[in-house]
Design goal:
The protein is of the alpha/beta class. The protein has helices spanning 31-37, 48-64, 80-91, 111-129, 145-153, 166-171, 207-228, 238-241, 251-256, 263-280, 286-293; strands spanning 21-27, 69-72, 95-98, 135-136, 158-159, 182-185, 190-192, 231-237, 282-283. It has eleven helices and nine strands. The protein binds zinc ion (ZN).
């Protein structure tokens, strides 16, 4: 495992730093929540898409010597097939963070419902897996101040839902949103780990989009990103790794799930992306980076 601490790297938060650091995240959206996002109900039984994606991602990260952070939806612990996949992730030494209890958009929920998605989800994950769950990513990146308060008061160390763009500056006018990890609540040592953002109107350059926009777009955007940021949060979804399945859900959903690519095409392409990132950035985990940052 590449660990920043092992390499005795000093982190700087200014543009003169020569040390660029990256970490990999995987959002664990299964077919049930993907269908839900399209206003449909998944009724296909055991989610082989989810299970093969976890298997493929674990082999991939092992081959690339990468430790990643998987953002888990807590209700998936209730499904035996998914649970055994999740346990394999823990056994392989990856970090587990939270992606809600039911993958609901936080900004449309009552306080009680937010508590379930953020606090009870964390407790459920920690109890089921015997690990510490330190990070959170809001479904659809919809987040608010009440959710930040809940996280900081209940033992989370970081959130990673914000793009440092105009929209989030408007949502949180009192916050000093930065492009690199920053303290949201200084006294609580609670960090925001922003997602990569380059300029308005361009689609994100996380892997799910890059399958269609191809590596020229990825390399160009990453080049510009590197000019002003020392830290990269690179986001995968399970769809990036899943073995294609016959999902009877229409063209749009098949495109969204990258279901037209073979397993080997996907993994070869992901290998090019991660090799390129590893060439320009020191690879660590968000958890190790923040531990180092907070001393
Ligand atoms: Zn999600």
């Amino acid at each position: 495992m590449f660990c920043a601490l092992d390499k005795k790297i000093t982190y700087y938060n200014d543009k003169t730093s020569l040390t660029k650091t990256a970490w990999f995240h995987v959002d664990m959206d299964g077919l049930d929540v993907i269908f839900q996002g399209f206003g449909k109900k998944y009724s296909g039984g055991v989610d082989e898409f989810y299970i093969t994606a976890v298997e493929n991602s674990l082999s991939f990260f092992k081959k690339k010597n990468i430790t990643a952070t998987y953002f888990l939806i807590a209700k998936d612990l209730n499904e035996p097939g998914k649970l055994s996949s999740i346990k394999k992730i823990v056994k392989c030494g990856h970090k587990i963070a939270c992606h809600g209890y039911n993958h609901r958009s936080l900004t449309s929920l009552s306080s009680k419902e937010k508590y379930l998605e953020i606090v009870e989800a964390k407790e459920r994950i920690e109890e089921a897996l015997g690990i510490k769950c330190l990070g959170f990513r809001a479904p659809r990146y919809h987040i608010d101040l009440e959710s930040f308060d809940l996280m900081s008061e209940t033992g989370y160390k970081y959130d990673t839902s914000i793009y440092p763009n105009h929209k989030y500056h408007e949502w949180f006018p009192e916050a000093h949103i930065q492009k690199e990890p920053f303290l949201l609540f200084k006294e609580k040592s609670f960090y925001e780990v922003p997602l990569p953002y380059v300029i308005p109107m361009l689609p994100p350059f996380h892997a799910s989009y890059i399958f269609y926009l191809r590596s020229f777009y990825f390399k160009t955007v990453l080049y510009f990103f590197r000019q002003y940021s020392n830290c990269l949060t690179y986001l995968f979804h399970l769809t990036d790794f899943a073995t294609p399945h016959n999902i009877k859900c229409g063209l749009k959903l098949n495109i969204f799930t990258n279901n037209f690519y073979s397993k080997s095409t996907k993994l070869n392409f992901l290998e090019k992306l991660t090799d390129h990132i590893s060439h320009h950035f020191l690879i660590t985990t968000t958890e190790d980076y923040l531990e180092h940052l907070s001393g």
